[in-house]
Amino acid sequence: MFPVSRFCRQSVVLRRWARRYAHTESNAGPKTASFGFKTVKEEEKEDLVKNVFDSVATSYDLMNDATSFGVHRLWKDEFVSSLNPGKKGPMKCIDVAGGTGDIALRILDHAREKFADRETTVEVVDINGQMLGEGYKRFKKTMYHNTPQVSFHEANAQALPEAHFQDNTYDLYTIAFGIRNCTSIPSVLEEAYRVLKPGGTFACLEFSKVNNPLMSMLYDQYSFSVIPLLGTILAGDRDSYQYLVESIRKFPPQPEFAKMIRDAGFTTGKDEDGGAWVDLWGGIACIHKGVKV
Ligand SMILES: C[S@@+](CC[C@H](N)C(=O)[O-])C[C@H]1O[C@@H](n2cnc3c(N)ncnc32)[C@H](O)[C@@H]1O
Questions:
Q1: Are residues 281 and 192 in the same domain?
Q2: 129 alpha carbon – ligand 1 mean position (Å)
Q3: Within this chain, do residues 286 and 224 fall inside the same structural domain, yes or no?
Q4: Does one domain contain both 4 and 105?
Q5: H or E element: which one contains 163?
Q6: Does ligand 1 lie within 6 Å of residue 208's CB atom?
């Protein structure tokens, strides 16, 4: 087992119930969530998502390279470069839904290589211990292993345990290809706002909406036929990759997600590409940013 902080589920559960209760009062009816193209009970989604990432954890990095021909690396590089960690001095960062640590490693490398900064820290947070375990193994081979620069925490993005993840703590909150898997996006954004310092940055890298119709059609063809097939061949798991593709299509388009970020209290740029968000590869992926005021 790797050293990962586990938090008492009790406070998480209590807060979840409080949210659910508040929601139920104003909005009667059964609570549902999308799990890919399926509609499931809200309380079921978390376990279903967990099963997906339990199943893909060991093949996750290989599959990312195979399904995107390595392009996810370029997007992640661009995401981290755009944040320029270390420029204003060492930062306290939290990488949520951090999985195998791709973003955390890039943040630390960028700060060190560009600014000789060995004091920036990243806390990698994920709901799935197996994904974190893969990240831990990977960091063991780096100079950051056994330093205060990186740590791993098993926790839910929607209810970060307040005893550890205190209010107004972080300079930078990142979440890459993670938020669409969460049951309640507003709860994730609310937590991001809570833990960031005033002036801190929320930054999200996520698959998004392709606006060019021809490109969108080609991308759909590729995603729905090739990715689940690669899942079957390389990872022996078609269903998980089918879910991952479907979940991309269920994620809100750029302007809608930008509004959700503002609704959580952040300021964003103008509602356009190059403002509140920056499209990568025509919107296949997209970077959204917001600043806590
Ligand atoms: C597609 S992976 C992305 C991993 C990594 N950020 C990357 O870019 O390679 C999505 C991650 O989100 C995590 N996740 C899903 N729901 C979560 C939640 N509610 N709280 C925290 N992590 C969650 C999964 O366990 C998984 O590791």
A1: yes
A2: 11
A3: yes
A4: no
A5: none
A6: no
| 3-state SS, residue 223 | helix
Q: How many domains does the chain have?
A: 2
- Ligand 1 mean position to 99 CA, how many Å? 5
Q: Does pTM top 0.70 for this prediction?
A: yes
User: For a pocket test of ligand 1, which of 16, 102, 181 has the largest count of ligand atoms closer than 8 A to its C-beta?
Assistant: 181
Burial grade of 224 (CB within 10 A; 0-12, 13-18, 19 or more): middle
Which atom of ligand 1 is the closest one to the Cα of 64? 9
Q: What digits encode the pLDDT tens for the residues 44-101?
A: 999 999 988 988 898 888 889 988 999 999 999 999 999 999 999 999 999 999 999 9
Q: Indicate which residue's Cα is closest to atom 1 of ligand 1.
A: 177
The answer to whether the Cα torsion of 114, 115, 119, 120 is positive or negative is negative
20 and 135 in a common domain: no
Q: What is the CATH number of the domain that holds 103?
A: 3.40.50.150
- pLDDT one-digit tens code per residue, 142-155: 999 999 999 999 99
The answer on 42 and 10 residing in a single domain is no
Q: Which domain holds residue 23?
A: 1-30
To 5 degrees, how large is the angle CA 16–CA 18–CA 22? 120
